[in-house]
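Figure 6 in text form: structure in, sequence out.
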């Protein structure tokens, strides 16, 4: 086999124990002339035939692959690549399959900058890129990327199991929360239903106490008792029940989510009529109390009014229970034209009316007027005060008052007498014919006096204090 031209001898260069495995030097510049197969990852240099230098199977490694410049080319320090030594042909050995020309290949030869470790180009020098020892960065053992390590199946299984446990834990927590929420919702719904029942029972008991006429029981169900209880008595409530039953029915309760407040619509019946109420309630411990205020009865006018037998000053506004209220004057001589008030609206009611004479009142006025007129007729005075039958004496006349006699002719009270009434004051008019008799003297001479004018005269009477026991009557 023909050998390529050898460079001038420079003395043997090798690394101990790297030549053929027996410490024998390998001739420098030796290169295979035969084609070689593809270089395997991690395999240093190329492979020769058995028994040839540089075969790792028999002779081991000669340090690292010796290179002169690039594959199969001579290169000395200071020379350009691909330039052979003076007088030597430009020789290039066969290239390895799969490598592009000009890439590092196999070949023996000293490289510039070779160190004690053997033939090594070190960093890229004049001869081209160097190579590092096998196992070092950039060496033949790491020329190509090494295969990635496979992830352990046990590790994957452990990660998967951990993720599964975490997912199951999250699902369990979510399911537990959902369960707790469902339990809480069911309990809250049960509590609401229970409190709605309690509210219904409270409102029904409220109506039963009203129907029974128990004012104290009704007031005991209120969250706050009214400050004025003038008309909030058993007697007044008993009278307010009237002939028709006072009831509360058809209760529809609603309770707030916090179970502390409630409202209930209900139908209230009184005086033969019905109205819908909207009651507000609040919870005090386990009991419910009505917070809605009672209706208010407002009385217009200045005259005193008896409300279900209790005298109240006109112009008052007082809380009352629902029901029927009778308005009186406190006497049988007068009455209110509107003598009753139905309090059925939840807010209350306003009442106003005019006074009118009763039959007894009219008779009383006429009877008292007649008595007063008769009393006037009996007066032993020429002009008694407050009487319509006055006599005046003229000059020289002296009347013996003890002899005075007045007589009313006929019955002026037999006809239809028109009596006019204003609050506690009445008036009437009659027509009467009357006689006057008296004795005396005229300029010292005995004389008899009589009423010269005859015929009916209109008498007018004014009575003040119609409802009093002793009214003040004036005739003129």
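Output sequence:
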């Amino acid at each position: 086999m023909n050998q390529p031209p050898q460079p001038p001898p420079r003395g043997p260069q090798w690394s101990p124990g790297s030549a053929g495995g027996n410490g024998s030097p390998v001739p420098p510049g030796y290169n295979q002339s035969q084609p070689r197969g593809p270089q395997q990852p991690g395999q240093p240099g190329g492979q020769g035939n058995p028994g040839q230098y540089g075969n790792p199977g028999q002779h081991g490694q000669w340090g690292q692959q010796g290179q002169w410049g690039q594959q199969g080319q001579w290169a000395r320090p200071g020379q350009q690549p691909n330039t052979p030594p003076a007088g030597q042909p430009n020789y290039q050995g066969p290239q390895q399959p799969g490598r592009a020309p000009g890439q590092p290949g196999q070949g023996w030869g000293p490289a510039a900058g070779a160190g004690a470790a053997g033939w090594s180009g070190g960093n890229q020098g004049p001869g081209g890129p160097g190579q590092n020892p096998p196992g070092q960065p950039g060496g033949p053992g790491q020329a190509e990327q090494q295969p990635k390590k496979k992830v352990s199946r046990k590790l994957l299984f452990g990660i998967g199991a951990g993720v599964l446990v975490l997912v199951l834990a999250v699902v369990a927590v979510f399911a537990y929360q959902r369960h707790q929420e469902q339990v809480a919702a069911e309990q809250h719904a049960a509590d609401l239903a229970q409190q709605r029942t309690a509210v219904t029972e409270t409102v029904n008991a409220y109506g039963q106490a009203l129907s029974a006429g128990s004012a104290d029981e009704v007031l005991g169900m209120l969250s706050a008792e009214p400050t004025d209880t003038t008309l909030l008595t058993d007697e007044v409530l008993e009278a307010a029940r009237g002939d028709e039953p006072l009831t509360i029915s058809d209760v529809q309760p609603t309770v707030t989510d916090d179970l502390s407040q409630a409202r209930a619509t209900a139908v209230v019946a009184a005086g033969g009529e019905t109205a819908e109420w909207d009651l507000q309630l609040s919870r005090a411990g386990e009991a419910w109390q009505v917070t809605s205020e009672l209706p208010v009865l407002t009385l217009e006018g200045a005259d005193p009014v008896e409300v279900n037998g209790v005298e109240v000053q006109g112009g008052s506004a007082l809380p009352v229970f629902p029901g029927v209220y009778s308005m009186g004057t406190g006497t049988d001589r007068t009455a209110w034209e509107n003598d009753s008030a139905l309090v059925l609206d939840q807010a209350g009611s306003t009442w106003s009316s005019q006074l009118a004479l009763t039959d007894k009142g009219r008779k009383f006025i006429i009877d008292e007027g007649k008595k007063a007129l008769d009393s006037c007729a009996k007066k032993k005075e020429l002009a008694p005060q407050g009487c319509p039958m006055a006599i005046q004496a003229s000059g020289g006349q002296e009347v013996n008052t003890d002899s005075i006699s007045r007589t009313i002719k006929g019955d002026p009270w037999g006809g239809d007498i028109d009596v006019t009434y204003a609050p506690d004051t009445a008036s009437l008019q009659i027509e009467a014919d009357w006689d006057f008799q008296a004795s005396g003297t005229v300029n010292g001479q005995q004389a008899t006096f009589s009423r010269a004018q005859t015929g009916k005269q209109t008498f007018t009477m004014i009575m003040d204090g119609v409802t009093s026991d002793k009214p003040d009557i004036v005739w003129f």
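Caption detail: Residues 7-143 have pLDDT under 50 and may be disordered.
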